[in-house]
Amino acid sequence: MSLKLKEIQAPIEHEMKEFEVKFRQSMKSKVLLLDKIMNYIVKRKGKQMRPMFVFLSAGTVGAITEPAYRGAALIELLHTATLVHDDVVDNANIRRGFFSINALWKNKIAVLVGDYLLARGLLLSVNHEDYDLLKIVSEAVREMSEGELLQMEKARNLDITEEVYYDIIRQKTASLIAACCAVGAASAGADQLTVSKMRAFGEKVGMAFQIKDDLFDYGSGEIGKPVGIDIREKKMTLPLIFALQTASWFEKRRIVYMVKNQSEQQKIVNEVIDFVKKSGGIEYAKGAMNRYYNEALDILDGFEPSDYRDSLHQLVKYTIEREK
Questions:
Q1: Which CATH superfamily is domain 12-302 in?
Q2: How far is C-alpha 7 from the geometric centre of its chain's CA atoms?
Q3: What's the pLDDT score for residue 89?
Q4: Which residue, 5, 94, 147, 168, has fewest beta-carbon neighbours within 10 Å?
């Protein structure tokens, strides 16, 4: 974990350590193979930003109590399930530099592992009667699935408008960060208006986060993923959408043809990246990202000042300043 994230985590350092123990317990199984896979999943976890959003949101509006731990575990269980299933759908062998579950144990086992994680999450909530938290997270998982399918549907014709792009990223990415913040607030016993405000805050952060992610495809900064992956996968993101909107009819047709039929060639990918940069697509996307970032901070500033709120502020800043 980067030094920056460690500093942001300071007010919830104890909670994050305790969460790791509780999360591992929530994944335990008597089936040896399953337990081995669960161990593997826990070992390769990422930056733990989702639990951080849950705990910091809970601390900002009230106190961090047992339901916050369960809410954070529920989000991690359901999100991990969707990632395991995603890797099967995408036929992906690597995730975050590690082999995916399907690469090591084949598709059939990966699908069942995803189902197991979903069931563990649902039972964790039902057994403790955390129905409000379960409702928030289940709605986010539904939205994530819809967002993925909407993106697949649109990728066929490459006819994504800016409005559709925002719909896709709102569902695919922002809905989960919104759920983290709403779960944090709900776990602290906040009223419905406060939970809605926290959800809106999380959604704005998620929008800014995804636009930042899409900018990485154009090589802005030292990045964790190879340049041009979205173009190769025919994913229409904001820099390209804007560039096509401002291009002449002939130029637009030429670029769309290249993305549709020749995007496996690095030379073509570089040409598309060049076209986007010259059209001002990068600056336009950065402007949209900063707009969502500022809207998120406006909402956050409406809460009482505290160390938790300060850390949330820093976490939002981190999401748009990160280099990978």
A1: Farnesyl Diphosphate Synthase (1.10.600.10)
A2: 21
A3: 79
A4: 94
**E strand map for the chain:** 94-95, 98-99
Q: What is the pLDDT of residue 143?
A: 95
- Give which of 218, 189, 203 is closest to 299, Cα–Cα: 203
Give me the mean pLDDT over the 139-156 stretch.
88
**Please, are residues 214 and 173 in contact by the beta-carbon 8 Å criterion?**
no
Query: What value does the mean pLDDT take over residues 76-105?
Result: 80
Torsion of CA 124, 76, 98, 91, to 10 degrees: 90
pTM as predicted: 0.89
Task: Supply the DSSP symbol for 158.
Answer: T
The pLDDT of residue 199 is: 97
Q: What is the mean pLDDT of the chain?
A: 88
Dihedral sign of CA atoms 200, 201, 204, 209 in order: negative
Instruction: Give the pLDDT confidence of 212-262 residue by residue, as tens digits.
Output: 999 988 875 444 445 788 888 888 899 999 999 999 999 999 998 888 888
Cα–Cα distance measured from residue 237 to residue 253, given in angstroms and rounded to the nearest whole number: 17
What are the Cα distances from residue 146, in Å, to 60, 173, 181? Answer: 31, 11, 21
Q: Which of 216, 206, 220, 217 is nearest to 169 (CA)?
A: 206
Computed on alpha carbons and rounded to an integer, the radius of gyration of the chain in Å comes to 20
Rounded CA-CA distance 182/57 in Å is 8
Query: How is residue 171 annotated by DSSP?
Result: I
- Nearest partner of 296 among 7, 60, 9, judged by Cα: 60
Q: Give CA 13 to chain center in angstroms.
A: 22
Where do the domains of the chain lie? 12-302
Instruction: Please name the residues in contact with 116: beta carbons below 8 A apart, sequence gap of 6 or more.
Output: 29, 34
Question: What does the alpha-carbon distance between residue 138 and residue 117 come to, in Å, rounded to a whole number?
Answer: 13
